[in-house]
Design goal:
Radius of gyration: 22 Å
InterPro entries: Glyco_trans_1, Glycosyltransferase_grp1
Helix content: 40-55%
CATH architecture of the largest domain: 3-Layer(aba) Sandwich
Shape: elongated
Number of domains: 2
Number of strands: 14
GO molecular function, one term: hexosyltransferase activity
CATH superfamily of the largest domain: Glycogen Phosphorylase B
Strand content: 15-25%
CATH topology of the largest domain: Rossmann fold
Distance between the termini: 35 Å
Largest sheet: 8 strands, mixed
Protein name: Glycosyl transferase family 1 domain-containing protein
Oligomer: single chain
Structural class: alpha/beta
CATH class of the largest domain: Alpha Beta
Pfam family, one: Glycos_transf_1
Length: about 400
């Protein structure tokens, strides 16, 4: 209706601190009324997200106290359609195109004649792609009105899938930079004379911790008595295997596995570290890199992380490496920790680079995508499209 605020809804699996910071920034735009709809508030890997703050954001939780995976596709579809009917938004933002109710949200938009925006951090290099899957993505994306990509490589992938470049903005994968920058400044541990490499991630295969340990052992042999230690935050299915590898490599005194650090405790770890390492063999983005940079750390980041192309400026704030080559990572660790490197300058460069990748960038990108979508009528779906959407939404 002319003169009224455009109602924009974000449908996602569950809202973490990252999502709240992004949506809070976007919600400050006076042109929009905003609502966040999460499927559940319990994460399959972390349990109940009890310390989460919604910061005044209007929100709904469809299945409180549950993990979204514990709810059938048919239940999710019905709940999503029921909630969106009640809210009746003008625009629905969807996390990707495959899981967590995204297809159900897209189906609702096409049935009700509303605009749909996709938030995507997928890259062409994430996994081995197949023709059937890529064809389905193309068909689904043809029904979407606008997009916000994580960064440059995610934007290129959307365009390669047939999405018009003029309808894709950038800035989806950001964090609350101020939380980490201020947390480091406030940390009582910031002046502690400790130098170590820091990594943080779930202990699962794609995070590549076993090769990180190999690289670290190589680095230690070359660095000798001046070698740094390594701290790996997190936990998961590979913990026992990692502990066995640490013992086999004789690294028991040099590697620490303290477990998970919560959102409020992370700045203390960043405050003491000398460099952040993210070795994943595949990673759509890598938000922990944003965190480390906001905290003022140099970074060593796998070239197969989506954030590497935009956030890592080799020689300026760190470097990238082939995650399948432990010797390459060892060389970079040695060069950074013991070469002619000004770590403080690299840390300042990280802060300068990440300053352009905060919640305001998400807000601007979403505003651009919504405006571009509203400039034309919502996409139309054929009877075959509706059959496909219904089938995929019920999975």
């Amino acid at each position: 209706m002319a003169g009224s605020k455009t109602h924009v809804c974000w449908l996602l699996i569950n809202a973490s601190y990252y999502h709240i910071a992004r949506w809070s920034a976007f919600s400050k735009d006076a042109a929009f009324r905003t609502t966040l709809v999460e499927l559940a508030n319990r994460d399959a890997g972390f349990g109940a997200l009890q310390t989460k703050q919604y910061d005044g954001v209007e929100h709904r939780t469809l299945f409180p106290g549950q993990s979204w995976r514990a709810v059938s596709g048919a239940q999710r579809r019905r709940a999503i359609h029921r909630e969106l009917d009640a809210l009746n938004p003008d625009v629905v933002c969807l996390n990707g195109w495959s899981i967590g109710g995204a297809v159900a949200g897209l189906e609702w938009c096409r049935r009700r004649g509303r605009h749909a925006i996709v938030f995507s951090d997928s890259n062409a290099f994430d996994y081995k792609r197949n023709v059937i899957g890529e064809t389905l993505k193309r068909r689904l994306l043809a029904l979407v009105d606008g997009g916000v990509a994580a960064g440059s490589t995610a934007r290129e992938y959307l365009i390669a899938l047939g999405f018009p470049g003029e309808r894709v903005s950038v800035g989806y994968d950001v964090v609350d930079n101020a939380h980490f920058a201020q947390g480091v400044r406030d940390s009582a541990l910031a002046s502690a004379p400790s130098r170590f490499f820091l990594a943080t991630a779930r202990f699962e295969p794609k995070k590549n911790h076993l090769r990180l340990l190999e690289a670290f052992a190589n680095y230690r042999r070359r660095a000798g008595d001046s070698a740094w230690s390594l701290v790996i935050l997190g936990d998961g299915v590979l913990r026992a295997q990692m502990e066995a590898r640490i013992a086999a490599l004789g690294l028991e005194r040099a590697v620490s596995l303290p477990g998970f650090a919560d959102y409020r405790g992370l700045p203390d770890w960043y405050a003491r570290a000398g460099c952040f390492v993210h070795p994943s063999t595949t990673e759509q983005w890598g938000l922990v890199v944003n965190e480390a940079m906001a905290a003022g750390l140099p970074v060593l980041v796998s070239a197969r992380c989506g954030c590497a192309a935009d956030l890592v400026h080799p020689g300026e704030n760190g470097d990238t490496f082939d995650p399948y080559d432990p010797s390459a990572l060892a060389e970079r660790m040695l060069r950074l920790a013991h070469g002619d490197t000004d770590l403080s300058a690299m840390g300042r460069a990280s802060r300068r680079i990440i300053a352009d990748w905060g919640p305001q960038r998400f807000a601007a990108g979403t505003r651009e995508a919504v405006s571009a979508a509203l400039a034309s009528a919502p996409r139309r779906a054929s009877p075959l499209d509706f059959m496909l959407l219904r089938a995929l939404a019920g999975r």
